Amino acid sequence: MPGSHFLYSWSLDDNHQTVAQFFTDLSSGKTETVLLGTNFRRVSDGDWLWFSFTKSDGDIVAVAQTLGEPFQGTGTRGRWQIQVRWMEGLTTRLRKTPLALNVPEQSRQGSPQRAVPSLERVLKKWLNGNYSTQARKADETVRWVRRSMLQRQGQQEFRRRLLTAYRGQCAVTGCTEEGTLQAAHIRPVSSKGDHHVSNGLLLRADIHNLFDLGLIAIDQNLVIHVSKQVSEPAYRAFDMKKVHVPQGPGTPSRSALLWHFNNMYKQTSTTRIHGKHT
Questions:
Q1: Which residue among 54, 87, 195, 250 is least enclosed by CB atoms within 10 Å?
Q2: Strand-pair partners of 113
Q3: Total-model pTM
Q4: What is the rounded distance in angstroms from the CA atom of residue 94 to the CA atom of residue 251?
């Protein structure tokens, strides 16, 4: 079973719940947004969150899986959060027979905490004995459908915000034909990127393709780099030009641009150029 395992010390008081209300909320397939605390960078899509109550003996009483990547909330709840899907069948078993947490070295401070190796072995063994192949396939199908839905919703909102920030203008070409403009992630969601506008560029569709292939990049000084492998004069004309980007919150993240430059542009160019010499 893929995914990392985390212990989540759940505060009934902070969530204004009784034990009965906590379990009543765990309806089949229900999703919920939970806070991640300071360890948000360690949690990703498909991880397992194992819940115990803060005011108890620490036994594990529920389990959920994460859907999508962490995101930053707005307003007074501007802390890092993630959506989870409660695993109803597994939680029913845990409620009847809680899983004793007899691991002194496991940290319970903050939410969530990565399971130490000894606890992770216990959790995986428990899953192997309680999570049937049929249930596993059914749950994976539901999770895939929900994940696809969340990605589509996030992408639509991402594009809307980029169109506003860039005033409907491609960052590289200056094109204003809205039908050709796409929302490009600088650092892909699959590589710990997010849907924040600072991790995006509004690009014309063909430029977006070249950017995703690592054949066009933008450095930390907002200068465009076009790979030598791109021979079309119309694209080469953008090499070493400055991009058109908004100021303020919409300005592209320098760290994200550096990540793309080093991990996409440089690696793609090196691989393909090496291939020509071989």
A1: 54
A2: 7
A3: 0.54
A4: 47
